[in-house]
Write a structure and sequence with these properties.
Oligomer: homotetramer
Radius of gyration of chain A: 18 Å
Order of helices and strands of chain A: EEHHH
Structural class of chain A: mainly alpha
Strand content of chain A: under 5%
Number of strands of chain A: 2
Chain lengths: 97, 97, 97, 97
């Protein structure tokens, strides 16, 4: 197999790209919906609830990307004796928590 | 002035709508950028950093909407003796924290 | 009634103090338990799960303090025409989210 | 060396135990301080700021424990071909984010 994850590239097949991008499209759809709520003078409390849903959707997507990342890039680099990606994970944990 | 915030409606002027929607557009732009990163086989670690930036942008937008909401709907309803919106704020705090 | 909340003081009765302090004691108890886990060479993964439980307990306590605060200090100051405490709430929302 | 991390045990030397427990003691100290604030009728807004500081301190401690965990248990098990701990990390990410 060619490398799936090297030189700061992550090679994804078409199915993986489609899965991730359809999730991102769904979040964009939620945000377009929030724009319509603003235009329609919808109640701020309801807009805030929708924003918290978009926030959860982004975190859920991040956990999927992290899952893929750990099982490919991180796993392979550790097997090859390179532990630098482990520090990146701790840094990402700090950013999201 | 007619009510700005009643019957679960929040009346916004054109400037307020423009300000909120341009912020939402910026977050949508970030997410479109992340889709391009996926298509271009960009490194997962970099995608996760971008997702954490979108997450922060959504929370920052939420705090702006909350600010407006507190200074209009919540303020007015409390002045009129209605405290129901205060419980909504505590519930929103729970959702976002 | 004397003021319950003025000059940056919040007067609490014995029952309220007991309720809050028993919750804080429970979180301290969790943390004492985590110290014992460290001493007993317990698995880091399990320690992290306990830390996430303490984190949730602190946020839950914060939402209770916020609830009291909104229904007393914030409510009263708004009724008296002082809106400065509303900005404090938005700032607290930013800190916790 | 015997295993540092096996059978859901994490062997720590005295220095590591001291480092972790002194951090936990500091958080307990913060919470004892918050109890005194409650007893002294201190302003809820100030109590909430202290609670957000304790929340940050717990997350910071969690990132230190995670860092140790990734560089010992996770690293070693991956080298030995066991990837089960990787799923635990993703689950912990979900709990804290």
């Amino acid at each position: 197999m060619e490398c799936k994850c090297c030189d700061r590239k992550t090679i994804r097949n078409e199915e993986e790209k489609k899965k991730l991008n359809s999730r991102i499209n769904r979040i964009i759809g939620q945000l377009e919906g929030i724009k319509r709520m603003v235009d329609d003078d919808r109640y701020c409390g309801d807009i805030l609830i929708q924003l918290s849903a978009s926030d959860k959707a982004i975190k859920s997507l991040a956990s999927i990307v992290l899952d893929d990342h750990m099982h490919s890039c991180v796993l392979n680099s550790v097997k090859e004796g390179d532990t630098s990606k482990i520090d990146e994970i701790v840094e990402l944990f700090r950013r999201f928590s």
